[in-house]
Amino acid sequence: MIRLSYGNEWLESWYAHIRPFSWIFPIWIISFYATYLYETRYFRFGIETVRTISTAVIIAFVGSITTFYAFPPGLTHPRRDMILFVIIFTFLLIGWRWLIYRIFRNHIKTTLVFLGEASEVKELEQYFNERPHLGYISKGTVGSNGEYIKTLENKIKNDGVRLVVVNAPDKNIEFNKKLFLLLSSQVTIIGLEEFYEQILNKVSLNIITDTWFIKNLENLSLDFYKLTKRVSDIVFAFLGLIMTLPFYPIIAILIKTTSKGPVFFKQARIGKNNTPYFLYKFRTMKSLGVGGSAETKGPIYATPGDKRITKIGKFLRVSHIDELPQLWNILGGSMSLVGPRPIRPEFIEKLKENIPYYDMRHLVKPGLTGWAQINYGYGITIKDEYTKLQYDIYYAKKQSLALDVAIILKTIKSVFAIRGN
Fold it and tell me: Could you tell me if 357 and 334 are in contact, meaning their C-beta atoms sit under 8 angstroms apart?
């Protein structure tokens, strides 16, 4: 706008640009949110912050150009000016983040103490130690028996504690009354369950109870959300199939000419409410067993460097192209675009025996991508599945259209980073 403005033309140029650019600024905000730039993990300035800013700018730039061509503003130069805008904005954003970090890195601190021991406390303390830029300073744990109030008062007075995180779900009314008295000391009191969820964006399976699910999964029954989500799934799957079907013959030829076996791979999965269904993918492994299966001695997880994966299969997995046939599952209603990744029935019984509340993930329709996938990725151990369930239940509690959009955009970010399972 500035380079085209001279004298009285400045105002005219301003009005010419403000309309088309006002359409795309929300795209930039959503892109930054989707790539985690508004989360505290990126408050500390470093190479990862610069890399993430670059990814966010690329996604926003592509979305902006697409918007300009989808809704022509009646001008040609906003499209050209977008390139200049991207260059200037990127340098300004990186400089701004660096400056803010330099100014506030030593001033934003929250001193806290934990009341009541738990494994989650150790996990949080380790998390804070590894991320000092978050500003949380732990003054240790106080037992919830004996003279705990006096100990807390000493820590508030001598250590400057301003946050008390409480793990005492079974305590009585008298216990809560004693904690209430601490509020006059200008401290914030929060439950460990809620604090853990806010910081790590997942739930603690050790803390939650059966009652927790009754109180927190009300979103499962919201008719408007379910209807909107289903309509969005159908539209996305339909458009996705239109755009990708022309590439199916090329993918099929590559698969058939590099290994023996079928082009498509069909495998049983467990869906919403424990309903079984068949999931479809492009085949990425050698056909060793009956029906083109890659398994000869029973069900096993795919592992890094798995020799069963073909050369073209490795590319299909890394690029996530092998997942494209699941658009048919989404269109048919057995899957959603966003939700917990579906699990094979052969693995579920073992996981239910070792992980509490594992069946709760099946209250939500499985998805092509999900909260666990973008936060944790692929895993093959019981510990991996435990952590992924923490994220899946968090999603079941928090699910909304806004969260679904964020997950989709964050999935796009991971594809840009070429990270796959």
Answer: no
Q: What is the pLDDT of residues 198-225, one digit of tens each?
A: 889 899 998 888 888 888 877 666 788 8
pLDDT means per 10 residues in the chain (421 residues)? 51 63 79 75 66 81 76 56 80 83 72 90 91 84 84 88 82 72 81 90 89 79 84 93 94 90 90 93 76 53 71 87 94 94 88 90 92 84 91 90 82 61 41
C-beta of residue 133 within 8 angstroms of C-beta of residue 105: yes
Give tens-digit pLDDT for 301-351.
666 667 788 889 888 888 889 999 999 999 999 999 999 999 988 888 889
Which contacts of 36-39 are long-range, i.e. CB under 8 A and separated by 24 or more positions?
A: 36/410
190 within 8 A of 166, measured Cβ to Cβ: yes
Please tell me the distance from the alpha carbon of residue 300 to that of residue 294, in angstroms, as a whole number: 10
pTM of the model: 0.74
